[in-house]
């Protein structure tokens, strides 16, 4: 997944930043949630403290992408991959809902949104989230689920702007090792 610094904060003048883009960049984040995110970052080395602060941020802003991304990254970097998968699912649900798409990522079709455009912030959030979801499933040994998510990414963006093909190569190698 990506953080707010992964998006060019200085958009070209002609590019309108919609509400979800602004929210991914941190706008609309309640002060209490922002405070907890900052405190969690400062307490990262204290797992229980940092997690409690992140969960308090989540309680203050349950659907805000900045909070979800912060919690995802915490779990990911602490090696709590199953917890990270749960947050990735929440991010997928948010993106699907905001895009007005089916509740299951498997039902998403290429013409549902502009998945190949970097300037289409919400579809980009969806694709990066699905890529993280795929990677996590592969890391926990759920290769088929990971491969299915990567295959969907490549169907949504055949030009593969987010390099999902690399994950497919990894899944193929992992599958070949299982056959040996």
Topology:
Elements: H1 19-24, H2 31-42, H3 47-60, H4 65-77, H5 81-99, H6 121-139, H7 143-156, H8 164-179
Features:
180 residues, mainly alpha, Serine Threonine Protein Phosphatase 5, Tetratricopeptide repeat, 0% strand, TPR-like_helical_dom_sf, Tetratricopeptide TPR_2
Task: Please provide a written account of the structure.
- It comes from Methylocella silvestris (strain DSM 15510 / CIP 108128 / LMG 27833 / NCIMB 13906 / BL2).
- InterPro entries: TPR-like_helical_dom_sf (IPR011990).
- This is Tetratricopeptide TPR_2.
- There is one protein chain.
- By secondary structure, the protein is mostly helical.
- 63% of the residues lie in helices and 0% in strands.
- It has two domains: 13-79, no CATH class; 81-180, Serine Threonine Protein Phosphatase 5, Tetratricopeptide repeat (Alpha Horseshoe).
- It is built from eight helices and no strands.
- It is globular.
Quick recap of the structure?
Helix content is 63%, strand content 0%.
Shape: globular
Ends: how far apart?
32 Å
Supply the CATH architecture of the largest domain.
Answer: Alpha Horseshoe
Strand content: under 5%
Report helical residue fraction.
Answer: 55-70%
Please tally the helical runs, counting DSSP H or I stretches of 4 or more residues: 8
CA radius of gyration? 17 Å
What characterizes the major β-sheet? none
Organism: Methylocella silvestris (strain DSM 15510 / CIP 108128 / LMG 27833 / NCIMB 13906 / BL2)
Protein name: Tetratricopeptide TPR_2
